[in-house]
Design goal:
- The structure is a single chain.
- With about 240 residues, the chain is α/β, with parallel strands linked by helices.
- It has two domains: about 1-75 and about 155-240, 3-Layer(aba) Sandwich (Rossmann fold), CATH 3.40.50.300; about 85-155, no CATH class.
- The protein contains ten helices and ten strands.
- The strands form two sheets. It has a six-stranded mixed β-sheet, sandwiched between helices. Strands 2-1-4-5 form a four-stranded antiparallel β-sheet, covered by helices on one side.
- Helix 3 (about 95-105) crosses helix 4 and helix 3 runs parallel beside helix 5.
- The longest helix has 16 residues, at about 170-185.
- The chain is globular and about 50 Å long.
- It starts with a strand and ends with a helix.
Length: about 240
């Protein structure tokens, strides 16, 4: 479904992504971890088209999308949430999702309404369709961010720290939603600092540091690697044992 070939991105002399290669299969859920500044969100922005890359290729569903702008990648099936929710504050939950279905998926009329409502229901906001976004709690803003991404009818969903700031019970509810998304065949790449949330539902775990891939594989195996303890968790090998 998604293939990255030697992706590179720099800002001046700072290399943010360095020769990043990775593949994602249809229906697979991939988790990404790494310390702050590792290049995780920059990688998402490169995949979704918010930024251009300096080198390498991005393939989606067999097509080279490296040069496509963000709106065309969204139309092609790459949906994204942001670490800090970005709702249209003057609108209701339904209106936010409806805009996403209209402009993100190119839908209109009753079809757009249907996709918007389905995305809201899946995100756990069905009883708040007409609630103004300005009155939402953090959990519901996170759910709305997810609903807006789902309303674009994505084949690939990019989630940037969607569990950040939530309490444990809210995280469990979110995990249930993401598992249901996976059962519907949507591929997911999820950046998250709350590691236990990731390992409870992802198929693979990718660790990056300074824009380079450190490890990629089974979540439990990856988390047991000494280099992951040293780089991501701030522990040396003896501390980790």
């Amino acid at each position: 479904m998604l293939k990255l070939e030697n992706i590179q991105k720099s800002y001046g002399s700072l290399k943010v992504i360095h020769n990043m290669s990775c593949e994602l299969s249809q229906g697979e859920m991939l988790g990404i971890i790494g310390p702050n500044g590792a290049g995780k969100t920059t990688l998402f922005s490169a995949i979704s088209g918010q930024i251009s890359v300096d080198g390498g290729k991005i393939f989606f569903l067999g097509e080279d999308v490296t040069g496509l702008p963000a709106f065309k990648r969204c139309m092609a099936g790459i949906g994204r949430s942001f670490q800090i929710p970005r709702p249209f504050h003057g609108m209701t939950i339904f209106e936010n999702a409806r805009v996403a279905a209209n402009f993100g998926a190119g839908l209109s009329g009753k079809t757009a309404d249907k996709f918007a409502i389905q995305a809201i229901e899946l995100s756990g906001l069905a009883d708040q369709l007409n609630t103004p976004c300005s009155s939402l709690s953090l959990l519901d803003r996170k759910r709305l961010e997810l609903a807006r991404a789902l309303a674009t009818d994505p084949k690939l969903l990019l989630l940037d720290e969607i569990a950040g700031g939530l309490v444990e019970s809210e995280i469990h509810d979110l995990i249930d939603i993401l598992k249901e998304i996976g059962r519907r065949g949507i591929s997911v790449i999820w950046i998250e600092h709350i590691v236990h949330a990731l390992t409870s539902c992802v198929d693979r775990l990718l660790v990056i540091n300074f824009g380079a891939k450190i490890a990629d594989g089974d979540p439990n195996t990856v988390m047991a690697l000494p280099e992951v303890h040293e780089i991501y968790m701030g522990l040396d090998v003896e501390d980790a044992s």
